[in-house]
Amino acid sequence: MATTIAWEWYRSFLGVLREGSLSGAARALDLTQPTVGRHVAALEAQVGQSLFVRTPAGLLPTEAALSLRPYAEAMDSTAAALERTARSHGDGVRGVVRVTASEVVGVEVLPPLIADLREQHPELVIELVLSNKVQDLLRREADIAVRMTPPKQEQLIARRVGVIEVGLHAHERYLKAHGTPRSMRALIDEGHALIGYDQPAPYVRELARRYPVMARERFAVRADSDLAHLALIRAGAGLGLCQVAVAKRDPALKRVLKRELGIPLETWLTMHEDLRDSPRCRVVFEALVAGLARHVGAGR
Asked: Per-residue confidence at 154, pLDDT binned at 50, 70, 90?
């Protein structure tokens, strides 16, 4: 009879993949290093292949390990979803809800909404995942997601909350020192400092295609974090892209070239249909829909 592969083996394997070492995985998983090593060795024996190669830089995954990774990650997401559900049984709105959103939405928009939810439902626990990566709701990496693109999976409940506009902004301190550009061409001719992205992700290439002045080589400061862009704009480091509704909260942040540059982000709230009858998820979903709708309205 074939031996069943224990979930703990996959969990330790995934920990080593993510951390690059047995010691790093042990710390992340709150296990001992020998335990992690035994789990990985047992998994290698069961699958009949080496999963890691020792190098001076750490443990590097083999092709076999890379082929197992998506399945181990799916198991990890399912186990986390099972734990959230198991801890959330009982009357009323209680338990864990995992919400994912982009960096800016997660830091600048959601915190007061979450604070209100916790005041109304003290037994509600919110796990907030800040990432510009699209979390997979079908694999239950999150329960609810704020997305800037329409969801395509039929198994998701989706609510369109409106359009968040992104525009070019600068701190008044920067504009006082360097002047206010009156055209896109002036951004170049007048030597303005532009804040933008470093890595050529698809949306970065699309931005440069639509607005050639926003090409990577023209950026005076580069970062792949929207929160870093916002902090740099607030510090007066240059002109950068920012949600209009966020910028309006600070009178010192001024939008420039409104007619020439505006990026509409269609905003949706999504949830797996299996959570439709979950009181905790339904309450959070409706509260976030209402709060995001107010945020959208503030940017008009």
From this structure: low
